[in-house]
Write a structure and sequence with these properties.
about 150 residues; alpha/beta; five-stranded parallel beta sheet; 5 strands; binds 1,3,4-trihydroxy-5-OXO-cyclohexanecarboxylic acid; DHquinase_II; EC 4.2.1.10
Length: about 150
Amino acid sequence: MASVLVLNGPNLGRLGSREPDVYGSQDLVTLEQQLTTAAAGRASIDLRQTNDEAELISWLYEAVDSNTPVILNPAAFTHYSYALRDAAALVTKAGIPLIEVHISNPHARETFRHTSVISGIASGVIAGFGFGSYRLALMALLEPEG
Ligand code: DQA
């Protein structure tokens, strides 16, 4: 079965208790279950989270080397990590889809969140639909023809 890497950046390990008014009250375990259900046997979901920029970059190398599509919530790295952008560019320049997702809509929040250094090299961007952003990204990967 094909695999999809669902990579989550800093502080997303605290989903469930972190700012529930912004991010909801469900955690990453629930997200993995939702995505596995949505995949319906068409892909296996490999969901990971790290607070470490280097580890996130190493997972993007792994995506390149294994030709695995990526759903990426870069969290705060979205807004300033050129190193993560360069690593994400390796994925899309290899012809592998990488979809940037956000639980909240960063454009409706503080000004510093309006900039994404990732979007310019992503295959697409989905934001503002809670965990639904990830499910929509998964559908885009599994049903690219719509
Ligand atoms: C986020 C939005 C980012 O601005 C923030 O730093 C996060 C989560 C989101 O999913 O809405 O940690 O990526």
